[in-house]
């Protein structure tokens, strides 16, 4: 059996890059807004779409329920999000950004966009389009592998 070389193993490289990017970006909003990576991801989802369940946030971010539940609890304590229980089923709730959460979100988005621009500054428009296309293909394939083989997807 041939040894696995991590530096050329695609899942490893993607994971390392994702961790590096998340950590660098998190340093910006952690210091200024006292947010963790999971907290920001919850807010980012709610900045896009409101009145969604925590399960929706889990699916959208691909983060586990415990991590999202803890992030939601901290964001509720900070009053950055609101939880509304559904009239038809009190066990189900929906989440939305509060006015304060919306203000923080609106301050972070330009910082995140500047980071994205700086990160991709060395790429041509064609490179960016190709990267977007390749990432979409990999996400689709990873989802299909999860369904075909039972690997977590």
Descriptive overview:
The protein has one domain (6-119): Winged helix-like DNA-binding domain superfamily/Winged helix DNA-binding domain (Arc Repressor Mutant, subunit A). A hairpin with a 2-residue loop joins strand 1 (81-86) and strand 2 (89-97). It is 67% helix and 10% strand. It has 153 residues and is mainly alpha-helical.
Write the layout of secondary structure elements.
Layout: H1 10-33, H2 37-48, H3 54-61, H4 65-77, E1 81-86, E2 89-97, H5 99-119, H6 125-149
Antiparallel strand pairs: 1-2
Helix pairs in contact: 1-5, 3-4
Please state the overall shape, judged from the principal axes of the Cα atoms.
globular
Number of helical regions: 6
Structural class label: mainly alpha
Q: In CATH terms, what is the architecture?
A: Orthogonal Bundle
Oligomeric state of this protein: single chain
Strand arrangement, largest sheet? Answer: 1-2
Strand count, sense and barrel status of the largest sheet are:
2 strands, antiparallel
List keywords for this structure.
Arc Repressor Mutant, subunit A, globular, 153 residues, mainly alpha, two-stranded antiparallel sheet, 6 helices, 67% helix
Quick structural overview:
This protein has one domain (6-119): Arc Repressor Mutant, subunit A. It is 67% helix and 10% strand.
């Amino acid at each position: 059996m041939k040894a696995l070389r991590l530096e050329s193993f695609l899942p490893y490289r993607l994971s390392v890059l994702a961790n590096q990017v998340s950590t660098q970006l998190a340093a910006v909003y952690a210091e200024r807004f006292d947010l963790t990576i999971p907290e920001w991801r919850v807010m980012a989802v709610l900045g896009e779409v409101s009145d969604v369940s925590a399960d929706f946030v889990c699916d959208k971010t691909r983060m586990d329920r415990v991590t999202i539940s803890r992030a939601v609890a901290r964001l509720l304590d900070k009053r950055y999000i609101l939880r509304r229980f559904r009239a038809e089923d009190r066990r189900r709730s929906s989440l939305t950004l509060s006015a304060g959460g919306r203000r923080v979100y609106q301050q972070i988005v330009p910082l995140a966009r500047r980071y994205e621009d700086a990160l991709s500054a060395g790429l041509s428009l064609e490179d960016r389009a190709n990267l977007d296309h390749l990432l979409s293909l990999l996400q689709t394939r990873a989802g299909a592998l999860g369904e075909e083989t039972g690997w977590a997807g």
